[in-house]
Each structure stands twice: as structure tokens, then as C-alpha cells.
Write a structure and sequence with these properties.
Number of helices: 4
Largest sheet: none
Distance between the termini: 28 Å
Helix content: over 70%
Radius of gyration: 11 Å
Structural class: mainly alpha
Order of helices and strands: HHHH
Length: 62
């Protein structure tokens, strides 16, 4: 199962334009649980209407 999570982390970091280490750091330590859930779910759903909001929220935590 660990391999699946690694692939998810890689895909998310690519979509957000950061390396995997940065993605994990921001999601785990700088976002609230609600913010992290919003970012991940929005990107996974590929909801074009809100994906830019998710990206902006993520990048505001850098």
C-alpha cells in the first residue's frame, strides 16, 4: 500500500508544481486538516472551476 501513497504524493506534487518533499511538508505541517482535504480532493476530482483555488491555497502556505 505504501507504493500507492508514494504515487499519489508524486502526482499531487507534480500538479502543484513542487517537489514531493515540499508537498508533504506543506500538507502535513502547514495546512489544517480541512485545507489539506480541500486541496487533495479538488485536485483528485479535477474540478476545473475550483482547482486554481486549491493551488492558490497550497502556494499560500509555502
Amino acid at each position: 500500500m505504501c507504493g500507492l501513497y508514494n504515487l499519489l504524493d508524486e502526482a499531487m506534487s507534480q500538479e502543484l508544481g513542487v517537489d514531493v518533499k515540499t508537498y508533504i511538508e506543506v500538507i502535513d505541517k502547514k495546512c489544517t486538516e480541512e485545507e489539506a482535504t480541500f486541496i487533495i480532493n479538488t485536485i483528485m476530482d479535477e474540478d476545473a472551476a475550483t482547482i486554481e483555488n486549491a493551488k492558490a491555497l497550497f502556494h499560500s502556505k509555502l
